[in-house]
Amino acid sequence: MAIYLNNLHIDCYRGISQLDLEEFNHVNILVGDNNAGKTSVMEIICTLQDPLSLNVWNEIAAKKSDLYRGVMYYTAYQNIFPIDREKKIQFNGEFGELGSLSVCMTAEGYKTSISERELNRLNGFMRTGKQNIEDTYVDTNVLELCIRANTQIMEFEIYDFQRRPPRKAISKLNKNEVGIKTVFIEPRDGLENDFSYMSKVILDAEYHAQLIDILREFDPAITSIIAVEEMGKTVYYVRTNNHSSAVPISVYGDGLKKALRMFAVLAFNKGGIVLIDEVESSIHTSAMNKVFSTLIKWAKKLNIQLFVSTHSREALDTMLNCKEEYQKGINVYTLYRNEQKNYVRKLECQQALDLQNRMGMELR
To answer: Within the chain, where are the H helices?
Structure first.
């Protein structure tokens, strides 16, 4: 079984305070009410791949912003800190033989003035017209951030007008000491015709055959997937028994697209960690058995440590009732939030089945 991350302690992050998740397994199912912290836990795990990477933090910060496609990063970064407390994020991950990784991010705000020329540069604009005009200055708020990962430090600044993600940073070291490759799949990922990672699946005959078996749950006529270069972009099609021409994947429903995204990511991230938020999203109950049982099978075969969250009783039941040979590798973590405090209950697969089936306990 692939177990890279053993334990996670979150001292403070978004709405989470003092939360311990211990003895992670090969497959880890996160359940709980809305706002219990499931997505936040996954975000923290995602950052552990390289907490000194601005690309990782920019993506996390922008995820929940209402301005995702034109996000003001000053506001987005403000929102990842706990509300009404000091601007501090702190957590620790334990990786077995790879050791532990302690991360702390702090932020301080101040006001300053900046030249219009520098403002345009930070936003990627170029000044036009006469270049010898005296520059003007504008008032701005600045967020000064510092990330510490074990003994390494990175510092950077974000201005309140900044639409481009922050990139300039001063770092004492370039890499963290763990570096487990991680991919985070959100509920809507892959549903807007984003089929990145697909090449790994369609080039491997075995993966391709198994993926086609899954896709037939959505369309029994599908026989293969092909890639076509169109105007410098790769477009994916499926061949079917009932059409003379290949059909673009983009015309299919969200369930098929979600399945493609999940299994393409698994194939791409062999030997790493995969996080899937709201794993049941867009998957009809009629396809859950095939999709989720194969998801667990692929995770084991590809040495992937899998973290999924779900609100669905059907999805949870399907994963818990997988083949007996996989059940020892599954844990269920139920997250609770009560009076601004966070709690978690950990159950092994068989314990969860006993409580749910024999005693009628609601695990979600």
So the answer is: 38-47, 54-63, 73-78, 116-122, 198-203, 205-215, 254-268, 285-301, 313-320, 324-327, 349-357
